[in-house]
Task: structure prediction
Amino acid sequence: MCCGVGTLREINRQLFHVVLGVLLLLILFNFGRSKTIYFLSTILFVGLLLINLVVRGIRVPIATWFVETFERKHAPLPGYGSAWYVVGLLLSCLLIHDINYLASAVAVFAFGDAASTIFGRRGRLLLPYNKKKTLEGTLGFVLFSLPCFFFVGWAAVPLALFAAFVESFPLGIDDNLSIPLACSVFFYLI
Result:
């Protein structure tokens, strides 16, 4: 079966989502929370500089490749989704101090969100409260968020359910921000 360019771009985007999440987990467990915050802050700063150059019409090979490979066509700015992804991860790192809670939030964000998009695009059962999301995507989010069990035990189940609900709810903000915030709120409440 052949994929369209948009579908292939979205699969690439979600795979990058997962790879960056795994990289962040490695940094977190090998260097700690503070170094992870420094890493994300640096990525955000450099990324915003590159976005600024691209918006000004300056061709930066790596930035251009990144936008052409991963960015959604309807994004308001080049690098829009990537910037929110890094901002969401950075907010989680700033709000969640326990390394295991933080690792589980990263896992939910990286694996659950990617799965919701991949399964949701093929889904047919629309959610009654959000016709842009599918039951298949929400179930994929929950299922692929459950590896956070290794970091927080059985708290993984309500975390996955809560984050999946927030992701599926029509909040009007980018899910790259709403999911990390939902995970942060969850850990604040428990």
